[in-house]
Structure formats: C-alpha cells, structure tokens
Specification:
The protein is 50% helix and 15% strand. The protein has helices at residues 20-27, 42-58, 81-90, 104-111, 135-141, 145-169, 176-200, and strands at residues 8-10, 15-17, 31-37, 70-76, 96-97, 119-123, 129-131. The chain has a seven-stranded mixed sheet with strand order 2-1-5-4-3-6-7. Helix 2 (42-58) links the parallel strand 3 (31-37) and strand 4.
Length: 202
C-alpha cells in the first residue's frame, strides 16, 4: 500500500487514521487522487475553487456512477505547520491528508515527477499511474473525466489479474512437466508392484 505504516487525517471524521487496517479500508479498491498543493501558491489558490466544484459533482450520485470509488489525499507542500493545519481545517470533509512533516509527501512528489503546483496524480486501485497530472483535464472536462479514469483502472486491473492467472498456469520451470510425469510413472509402477505382490500372496 502507498500509505503503509502511515497515519492519515480524515476531515470527515475529524480524526487520524492511525492503523494499517483503517488506512487500507479507506483507500483500497478506489481510484486515488493525490493532490500536491500549497496554501501560499497563487496558482493553487486559483485552482482550489474549481477543484472543490469538481469534487462536489464527482462525489454526487446524481452526476457520477459509483462515486464512492474515488478518494483524494492532500499532500501539502506548505511552508509551515500552521498553513497546513488551516488548509486541512477548511478542506472538504471527504478529503484526507498526510500529516504535516511526514517525509512521504516529498518522496511521493519525487516518485511521481511532480514539477509544478498544483498537481493531481491519479492512481488506479493497483497503484498504477493513470494520469501524471490531471489539473488540465479536471479544468477542461470536469467530472466526466472520472469515467475515463475508472475504465482505464478496470482495464489495468483486469490485465493484471489475467497476467497473474496466466503466470499461475505456466510451469514454474521447464523441468516441472517432466518431474510431474516422472512422479506419475513412479506412482503407477508402485501400484503395479503392489498388485503383483497381492497376486503372489494368494
């Protein structure tokens, strides 16, 4: 899990999700939006109202099918803890946030190649990157882009599952079929010997 061993702040419950089980239950099997932003950033402040409207419609069953299949985690790039605290306090109740000072935020920024703020990295439930930065897509397409993300995520996950199934059906080594044949013949020889011994004992 991307946030394995980490705590998350959940605005809805006004508390921290501290256990692995709580974090996994909140995030697994969902399209995940990672929001890299900072309160002091002018472009972030300009994007914020549009993102909130986007999120409001995205999580409304009247506009989007299965809205519960998406989560957003704020990875603040704030300069101080007070800025971060104010952002978390004012963010929508269904958003989550990485606590201030957790180095995972910087690590994920580097991992996903975030080069500008704001950035919204969209991940499939499997963790695969669907969109490296969806800011432009959110502004241009609105909630309809979620359908594309979900379809891409389902396709990726289906291919991953099919690949796993295929790998399970492939012999673990080239010698495995021969080894199975040898054991089968060995079992057959044993059965024949037992039958012969039984006939001799009559």
């Amino acid at each position: 899990s991307l946030f394995s061993g980490r705590a998350l702040l959940w605005r809805r419950s006004e508390r921290r999700l501290d256990t692995e089980r709580e974090v996994r239950a909140a995030l697994e099997n969902r399209v995940l939006l990672l929001l890299f932003s900072a309160r002091r950033c002018p472009r972030c402040r300009e994007f914020e109202p549009r993102l909130r409207r986007f999120w409001s419609r995205l999580t409304d069953p009247a506009h989007v099918e299965r809205p519960e299949q998406v989560r957003l985690v704020y990875l603040g790039q704030d300069g101080c803890e007070e800025e971060h605290r104010r952002y978390v306090r004012d963010m929508p109740r269904t958003w989550m946030a990485l606590p201030y000072g957790d180095r995972l935020g910087s690590e994920l920024s580097q991992r996903f190649g975030v080069s500008e703020l704001p950035a919204v990295v969209v991940l499939a439930p499997s963790g695969a990157v669907l969109v490296p930065n969806a800011v432009r897509e959110i502004l241009d397409s609105g909630p309809s882009c979620f359908r594309n993300w979900r379809e891409a995520a389902e396709l990726l996950d289906r291919n991953f599952q099919e690949r796993e199934d295929t790998e399970r059906s492939v012999p673990r080594s080239l010698s495995e079929p021969l080894r199975k044949l040898k054991y089968r013949l060995w079992d057959q020889d044993e059965e024949e010997e037992e039958e012969e011994e039984g006939e001799e004992g009559k």
